[in-house]
Each structure stands twice: as C-alpha cells, then as structure tokens.
Amino acid sequence: MSTLGMMVGRFIGSIIGKKAEILGGLVLIGIGVQILWTHFHG
What we know:
Transmembrane segments: 20-40
Pfam families: Mntp
Keywords: Cell membrane, Membrane, Transmembrane, Transmembrane helix
Organism: Escherichia coli ISC7
Protein name: Membrane protein
Mean pLDDT: 89
Distance between the termini: 36 Å
Number of helices: 2
C-alpha cells in the first residue's frame, strides 16, 4: 500500500505540483486550528 501511494503521489505530483503542496499545507493548518479550538472551548 505504501508503494502504491508513492507511485500515485509521484504521478499526481508531477501533474498538480505546487498546488497540491499548498492545499496540503492548508489542510494541516485547518486540522491544527480545529484541535486548538476544541482544546480551548471543549
């Protein structure tokens, strides 16, 4: 499964490139904000 993920990632990465990195960063920031929100207002 890891190998398949790497192969698909390389293929999609060459097509999408920088946009995928930006989207991934935004998703990680969103997850972090959600964790902080539930921690402070839980």
